[in-house]
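It is worth pausing here to work through a concrete case rather than discussing structure prediction in the abstract. The textbook approach is simple: state the sequence, then state the predicted structure, then interpret. We follow exactly that order.
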Amino acid sequence: MFKFDKNTVPYHISNMVFYLVTLAAVGLIYYFAFLPPLLEVTTSDFYSSFGFGEFIGSLFFLILMIVPILLIIGAVYHLIKLVKPSGNVSAEN
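Step two, the predicted structure:
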């Protein structure tokens, strides 16, 4: 990451861009790497023999869904900090 003072405009811009680019990369990885195998195995047979192995596999993909959600939360946080800066900014006339 770039070296900026914390809670400055360049800090929030660089972090927001980092979160958005990472979100796009993760989205492409999920779409091209994880979606095709998921579409092949999630048939009615998959759910008829749902056991411990299928539970662990489902839990793995559930955990993978947390990563994009956290990236979106981080990008929105920095966008809010850009739009509404903190109250310690000095007003110069």
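Step three, interpretation. Helices lie at 9-41, 44-48, 52-83. The chain has a mean pLDDT of 79.
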